[in-house]
Each structure stands twice: as structure tokens, then as C-alpha cells.
């Protein structure tokens, strides 16, 4: 027995489904910049957008943006028919798309606050009140104990379904879609045309249902026309707003980084070489000879205070006796003699 999607739409790729799933998160990051009541604001906005999109296009807000469509799935032997979403499936889709993410976000925020509170308690040495039944039912232990397991389980299920979808082992991208009995496919050209006519019929029916005196109907029609225009251009407007917001954020962040970046100065020039003292031992013309014994350098060693190289035994005896560099007469000790090594 096979799961098939009715209609001529083809199965969307894993990357299309992933992009459609990540779009609400991107919208949330851009639209909920204020930190007060951000969950309620975003949930209300998505409730309007998702409800309108499911009612008119049988697809979520993000799916309709990518030209995708939800269809009911029926089990048949070698043959199945797909139809538009039922009212129950639309309502449950809103629950999975808006309501459950809202409660998950609130629970995640509560969990983070409890973690911060426990961290402050551990830093300041306050004793834990311990685990009791009353504390559990107030929600504190639910957030700190149950939420990590709930989050891990949901993420594990989500990853499993995405992996199976990527391997063509299932036609459902998530557990929610399978629970609804819904698969996602690409909308065909005919379906897009039918969607346009369907939206027109819905709006005409809503206008015909207006009741009241003529002036009230005129006001209601004007409000409906404004709401229709807002909903029609919501997708393009939101995507453009997110793009502009991200560009401004990148621009100001780059400018701030340029202002706060430390000034990089060029490296200072090297110190000049020490000069040969008049009373010091003169340097031989051949730099491969030792200035003390005038022989080839044996175990070449440098005096760190001046940088000149001699035989180790020669410079060790000289510095031990005179406590200075033989060439520059700068004070030195045997601890400031370093042997030089090189690969042969």
C-alpha cells in the first residue's frame, strides 16, 4: 500500500520543505525585535496569516510563498485520490503551525529564566528549597525537569522525519503532517488559477453577507477591501521588510565594528646595529671568521647584547674575564651567550 498525493503536483524537494519550515523563524527574528510581548505579537500575526493562507490556498504562509500546497492523503491499493483540506485539517494545521510553537516558545523562555535563577543561587550560595509536590505543580519543576526531555524528543522526531523524507522513505516531512493525514506537493498551474477564482468567490460571499444600513455597508466594504489588500501583499511586504531590516542591521553592525575596531599600527622599525667601539676588537673582512681567533667559526655563539658571533670557547673565555662584548665593549655576562645551530 502506498501513500500518494492526488493531483498533478510533484513532490517538493527536501530543501524546499526545509526553507519553508525555516521562514517563520526568520520572520520572527526580524519582526519581534522589541522584547516585550514578542511571543504574543508574533503568534497573533502568524495566526492571521496562517488562517488566511490555509483558508484560501490550502497551504501555510511559507508553503504558499514557495508554490506548495497541502492535500489530504487516502490509503488505496496502487491508487489514491487527494482532495483539498477539510475544515478540521485547517484548524489543526493552525494549531500545529501557531498554537504549539507559541506554547513551546513560552516554555523555553520559562526554562531559561529558571536556569538563570538556579545559576544565581549557586553563585551566591543560596540553598535550594528542595523538590516538593507543591513546587512541581506550580510549574517550576515542570520547566526544569520535563522541558529538556520534551525538547529532545521533539527535535529527535523532527530529525527522524526529515531524514526519512530526504531518503524518500516517507512522504511526510513532519509528525504533524502525518497526524493530519496531509502531504505537501507543488501546486500546478490549474490549481493556482482555481485558487484565484476561489478567493474571489470567498470574498464576494463575504461582501454579500454584510448587514445594516447603506452607510454601514459602505464602511464595512472599505474595511474589507483594506484587509484584503493587506493580506494579498502580506507575503511580498513581509519578505521585503525582513530584507530591508537585515540590510540595515548588517549596515549598522558593520559601521559599529569599524568604529570599535582597534587601530592597527605598522610594526616599528628594527633597532640599529651596535657600533664597533674604538677600543674594541675590529671585525675581520670575512664574516665567517671569528674576530678573536681569526679562524673559521667553531660552535658559533652570539652575544645577545650586541648580536656579533664568535667561537663559543673564545667568547666564553673573553666574557668570563672582561665582562663585556669584545667588539662593542657593552657589558655582558656568560648567561647572555647563546649558541647557534643550523641544519647541514
UniProtKB/TrEMBL annotation:
Instruction: Tell me the compartments it is located in.
Output: Peroxisome membrane
Q: Which domain of life is it from?
A: Eukaryota
Per the UniProt record, the lineage of the source organism begins with: Eukaryota, Viridiplantae, Streptophyta, Embryophyta, Tracheophyta
Keywords (A to Z) from UniProt: Membrane, Metal-binding, Peroxisome, Protein transport, Transmembrane, Transmembrane helix, Transport, Ubl conjugation pathway, Zinc, Zinc-finger
**Domain (RING-type): residue spans on this chain:** 290-327
What's the name of the protein? Peroxisome biogenesis protein 12
Xref: Gene3D superfamilies: Zinc/RING finger domain, C3HC4 (zinc finger)
One Gene Ontology term from the biological process aspect of the record: protein monoubiquitination
Similarity remark? Belongs to the pex2/pex10/pex12 family.
Q: In which pathway does it act?
A: Protein modification; protein ubiquitination
A Pfam family of this chain: Pex2_Pex12
Q: Which organism is it from?
A: Brassica carinata
Recorded GO CC terms? peroxisomal importomer complex; peroxisomal membrane
The entry's function note states: Component of a retrotranslocation channel required for peroxisome organization by mediating export of the PEX5 receptor from peroxisomes to the cytosol, thereby promoting PEX5 recycling. The retrotranslocation channel is composed of PEX2, PEX10 and PEX12; each subunit contributing transmembrane segments that coassemble into an open channel that specifically allows the passage of PEX5 through the peroxisomal membrane. PEX12 also regulates PEX5 recycling by activating the E3 ubiquitin-protein ligase activity of PEX10.
InterPro entries in alphabetical order: PEX12 (IPR017375), Pex_N (IPR006845), Znf_RING (IPR001841), Znf_RING/FYVE/PHD (IPR013083)
Amino acid at each position: 500500500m502506498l501513500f500518494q498525493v492526488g493531483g498533478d503536483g510533484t513532490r517538493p524537494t527536501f530543501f524546499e520543505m526545509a526553507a519553508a519550515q525555516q521562514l517563520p523563524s526568520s520572520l520572527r527574528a526580524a519582526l519581534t525585535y522589541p522584547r516585550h510581548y514578542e511571543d504574543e505579537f508574533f503568534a497573533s500575526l502568524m495566526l492571521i496569516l496562517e488562517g488566511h493562507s490555509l483558508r484560501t490556498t490550502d497551504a501555510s504562509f511559507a508553503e504558499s510563498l514557495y508554490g506548495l500546497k497541502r492535500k489530504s492523503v487516502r490509503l488505496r491499493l496502487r491508487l489514491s485520490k487527494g482532495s483539498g483540506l477539510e475544515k478540521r485539517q485547517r484548524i489543526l494545521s493552525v494549531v500545529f503551525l501557531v498554537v504549539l510553537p507559541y506554547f513551546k516558545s513560552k516554555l523555553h523562555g520559562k526554562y531559561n529564566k529558571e536556569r538563570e535563577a538556579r545559576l544565581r543561587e549557586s553563585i551566591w550560595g543560596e540553598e535550594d528549597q528542595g523538590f516538593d509536590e507543591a513546587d512541581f505543580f506550580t510549574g517550576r519543576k515542570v520547566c526544569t525537569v520535563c522541558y529538556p526531555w520534551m525538547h529532545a524528543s521533539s527535535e529527535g522526531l523532527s530529525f527522524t522525519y526529515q531524514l526519512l523524507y530526504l531518503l524518500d522513505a516517507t512522504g511526510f516531512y513532519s509528525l504533524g503532517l502525518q497526524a493530519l493525514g496531509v502531504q505537501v506537493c507543488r501546486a500546478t498551474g490549474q490549481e493556482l488559477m482555481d485558487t484565484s477564482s476561489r478567493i474571489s468567490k470567498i470574498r464576494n460571499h463575504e461582501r454579500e453577507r454584510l448587514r445594516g444600513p447603506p452607510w454601514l455597508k459602505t464602511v464595512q466594504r472599505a474595511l474589507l477591501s483594506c484587509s484584503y489588500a493587506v493580506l494579498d501583499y502580506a507575503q511580498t511586504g513581509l519578505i521585503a521588510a525582513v530584507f530591508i531590516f537585515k540590510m540595515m542591521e548588517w549596515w549598522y553592525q558593520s559601521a559599529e565594528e569599524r568604529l570599535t575596531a582597534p587601530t592597527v599600527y605598522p610594526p616599528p622599525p628594527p633597532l640599529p646595529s651596535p657600533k664597533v667601539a674604538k677600543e674594541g676588537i675590529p671585525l675581520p673582512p670575512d664574516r665567517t671568521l671569528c674576530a678573536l681567533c681569526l679562524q673559521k667559526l667553531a660552535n658559533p655563539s652570539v652575544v645577545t647584547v650586541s648580536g656579533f658571533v664568535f667561537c663559543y670557547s673564545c667568547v666564553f673565555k673573553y666574557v668570563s674575564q672582561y665582562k663585556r662584548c669584545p667588539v662593542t665593549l657593552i657589558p655582558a655576562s656568560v648567561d647572555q651567550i647563546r649558541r647557534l645551530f643550523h641544519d647541514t
